[in-house]
Amino acid sequence: MSSITKSKSHVSSLMSAINPLANPRGAKKQCELCQNPAYLQCSKCRVTFYCDTEHQQADWVGIHEKVCQLLIPIRTATLFHSLQADRDHHCAQILHRQEELIEISRAVAQKKLFEGKYQESLPAAQLSLRCAMDVYGSSAVQLVPAYLLLAEANVGLGSLAQAEEYLSQAEWTVMKTPECSQTVRHQLHRNLGRLYTATENLEGALLHFANDVYYASEEYGLDNIVTCGGYFLMANVFIKQEKMDIASSLYTEVASTWHSHLTKLLETHTQGSMTLEHSFDEAQQAEADQMLRAMLKVQESSPKQAAAQNALVAHSLAMLWFLGGSPDKALEFGRKALQSSQLVSDHSLTEPIQSLLQLAAEKGPHPTNAS
Description:
The protein is an all-alpha fold. Helices cover 71% and strands 1% of the residues. Helix 10 (244-270) crosses helix 11. The longest helix has 31 residues, at 84-114. Pfam families: zf-MYND (PF01753). This is MYND-type domain-containing protein. Keywords: Metal-binding, Zinc, Zinc-finger.
């Protein structure tokens, strides 16, 4: 049975276990996703409610499976504590769990966005926004990352008016917060650039991506994997304008930055000072995979194929997947990198690619003896 079929089967079993909700008089429950009156509840946590099984299933796949038990202490009424110290301790615990929930839902939404799962990302982004409002208030700058996630999802879904609304909220919040960080500013301009790209305002998009790169470089430096995300998006705009030389130059910058970063991580791992599990979080891996695969696809379809550039990107993908704990994919991209590297006169990549292939082969699945 495939993993997708298993997942659907598990959600279906959860749906069949959900009981109709009998609301106490005066207590109105709202759907987790649409805030309409709720008639169902999650049978596992019993503190999350839905208008129908469709929204329950969407929330389970989007985020609820990961945070179901974490929601119980946050949403369950607690006994009154007579001592102030006990009340303070309880409030501090709830605040810590809410902050944890914000980070988990934000990371899940970001990973799904990088994977192109725009609809699936919405429940996690919505939860992140609601939790941020509970903790920081309705007009705090801490809400901006959630607004940006929702905007990016809606751009991906083609709901540009809704995306523009979220971006207007984010932009207004940033404008009235002079002390807003460079990180938030670069994220805002990156998402504005995505919206302008989607509406074919390509010059406006390039301006926002330039601002994105500026603020990101102020925070992280020019040769950083965060900053090069702006270069990648600019390159995609130049491709739309059929300015392939500029796009290729930017792709080279992105590929070199990621290759250098991954090479350092791999060296740290092989020296034994970092385990594979701590190399990347899931969102970072999804972002890198999405960018590098897109560049490799464009380069391989170009009439002016550059074997050296293909080798660099494929080698980066091989290192990424090896560090992400997938030796089979590392072998796949490593072989592709080796093939390209052998087509160029400069064989400086050949040895590191061969070494990686050997590491990946050693980490791959081995046959086991039957007991």
